[in-house]
Amino acid sequence: MGLRKKIFRFVSLVLLLLLAYGIWFAWRAFPIISGFGAKNMASAIYLQHRKPASVLHEELAFFPVSLGTYTLNTEDSSVTGSVWGFARRKAIYRKGIGCTLVNDLTEEAIREQHFNLPLVPKQNPDTIAWPYGDKLSGSIPSTIDTVVLKNAIDHAMQAPSKNGGPAYTRAFLVVYDGNIVGEQYAPGFNKHSVMIGWSISKSLTAAVIGVLTKAGQLNPDAPAPVPEWKNTSKEKITLKQLLQQTSGLDYTEDYSSPSEATNMLFMRGDMGAFTAMLPLKFKPGTFFNYSSGNANILSRIIRHSVGDSGYAAFPYQALFHKINMYSLLLEPDASGTYIGSSYSYATARDFARFGLLYYNNGMWNGEQLLPENWVKETIKPAAANQLQRYGFQFWLNGLDKKDPGKRWFPDVPADMYFADGFGGQNIFIIPSKKLIVIRLGVHTVDENQYLKEVIQAIR
């Protein structure tokens, strides 16, 4: 065989392998790209009332999501995504419920679902004092250097993303000693704008678990009540291990390629059930593995504990409306279970109210809504979490309380803990400084820096 023929055959084999890989990758990745774009475009349009061009430019411009094409249909309140005409995925909007990807169930079956949601009280929040309403006192404590604080907020709003591009910070809010002392919004956004929390949703889900724990319906130390786990190797997984991300399930939280996380969020109709069926990889309680799947199992447990008839209203009636968090909207998957890992929308002020609930040890307006030891347990890392950076669906500042260099945020006190979402959606709670700091945007910025500057504003 001549050299030319050998080269030709080798090149042909390489091209064939590349083509096969391309087809395999497209088969797995294109539906996820379409689903991600369709779902987030739909929620931005129908919940935030934004223009498609803005969403494409700010949220959907990164590769490979930028390969997608997203078509708005105002007649049936939907967005359909595809990649070069392939892998079409549809997200539908339902008033009061938000947007849901059509997966596993038919669109007709999903649209026929009924959610019995509680009404929001008819009142003018601008006439009611914060935090029960939106009327601010206008006075700033003498312990706050207003010039330093304003500069800190300005810097945070203008800071570039960690990769050097625009961060699209939409809201920045500072609460000191229970009162709003600083607040700024990007053009087109204001105190009434609802914004996605992404994985802040995990912390919200954990709080609802806390409500059920206080009511005696759940026990964190008991085996998690997951029907599929009875008489299996997973039956000893505890509720606490789900909360602390040490369930041991074989789950990968990777968004750069197809994984359990992307398949769950964009390919499955019942996300909690999908994750519950995964095999064990580690002995429960022995390995920390951050997992949106664990949060969706928790959300499904809430549904099973409450029962279908009252489930849709329960998180609002039992907790979020009690803390005057009236803008909050929890989006469900196709099965009707709230996506406890990822899809919550609220104003910056309402996310601040949630932070204030934890800052006040689960107390609101004289009522103990969470167990008295819930926050204390929330900020305890599991023994398996070697970096000591995670509690009950909240992140912690990390390893060494005496050596700032070993903390996650070296310029922030060791007692800081926070709810954190994709792209830098953050509720930072710093009890020792009497601070709650909210940042909402599209891309992550240098959080240690802006927290350091806010802290410097306290005399």
Give a description of the structure:
The chain is an alpha+beta fold and 459 residues long. It folds into two domains: 3-102, no CATH class; 146-456, Beta-lactamase (3-Layer(aba) Sandwich), CATH 3.40.710. The protein contains 14 helices and 15 strands. The protein has a six-stranded antiparallel sheet with strand order 6-5-15-14-13-12, with helices on both faces. It has a four-stranded antiparallel sheet with strand order 1-2-3-4, covered by helices on one side. Strands 7-9-8 form a three-stranded antiparallel sheet. A hairpin with a 3-residue loop joins β13 and β14 (425-430). It is globular, with a radius of gyration of 23 Å. The mean pLDDT is 95.
Ends: how far apart? 83 Å
Q: Briefly, what CATH class of the largest domain? A: Alpha Beta
Low-confidence stretches: none
CATH architecture of the largest domain: 3-Layer(aba) Sandwich
User: What fold name stands as the CATH topology of the largest domain?
Assistant: Beta-lactamase
Bin the helical content. Answer: 25-40%
Please report the total strand number as a whole number: 15
Number of helices: 14
Number of domains: 2
Strand content: 5-15%
C-alpha Rg (nearest Å): 23 Å
The major sheet is characterized as: 6 strands, antiparallel
Structural class: alpha+beta
Widest sheet, order of strands: 6-5-15-14-13-12
Give helix and strand order, one letter per element, not per position.
Answer: HHEEEEHHEEEHHHHHHHEEHEEHEEEEH
| Mean pLDDT over all positions | 95
CATH H-level superfamily title of the largest domain: DD-peptidase/beta-lactamase superfamily
**Shape type:** globular
